[in-house]
């Protein structure tokens, strides 16, 4: 999986939460300092930060909320609610120069069905310095604008979910993963913080229609 040395990924001063800056620097560091290392070597070693895309999908006033099921690969997150599509970037995604963006496209294709193309804006970074999972992961926050038809979950053996209006997300807050709580608190709840102009935009392609999963209450 794709990793960066901690000091390169996070900088000299520890931080926690969302930073609406720094994406360009992290992406530029991947070709120079990134590595693909076996998961077993880095899963509990915070000297390496696993770089993960976190695609938050909005369609109109609704946000895609998903619950991780028992067949998901990360056992520590099973049962929790996430507002982000994404996962590890692997050597199969290509050379370091293109692996992150190719990995975003692969995760999009694997996890959701989108009847129309969507636009992803790379707007910031996410870090949970306190959690067991979060201390070895660095999220790249991608805010996705989907079409009016929305999106549905493809990997129904691993995820179930649906589009919910922002006020309806509150009842799921205590079940959310920390990264999703950060997104909800800072960018979704109430008016939310204005998002700066994105460092980069990517086009996420349409896919064949599929069946939506159901979010367990």
Task: Give a nutshell description of this structure.
By secondary structure, the protein is α+β, with helices and mostly antiparallel strands.
Which characteristics define this entry?
single chain; alpha+beta; Nucleoside Triphosphate Pyrophosphohydrolase; 5 helices; 20% helix; disordered C terminus
Report on the structure:
- The chain has helices at about 5-10, 25-35, 40, 100-110, 180-190, and strands spanning about 1-5, 15-20, 35, 50-60, 60-70, 80, 85, 110-115, 120-125, 135-145, 150-155, 160-165, 200-205.
- It is an alpha+beta fold.
- It has one domain (about 1-205): Nucleoside Triphosphate Pyrophosphohydrolase (Alpha-Beta Complex), CATH 3.90.79.10.
- Strands 1, 2, 3, 4, 5, 6, 7, 9, 10, 12 and 13 form an 11-stranded mixed sheet that branches. Strands 8-11 form a two-stranded antiparallel ribbon.
Class by helix and strand content? alpha+beta
Tell me the helix content. Answer: 10-25%
Shape: globular
CATH topology: Nucleoside Triphosphate Pyrophosphohydrolase
Describe the largest sheet: 11 strands, mixed
Report the count of strand segments: 13
CATH architecture label name? Alpha-Beta Complex
Domain unit count: 1
Tell me the Rg in angstroms.
16 Å
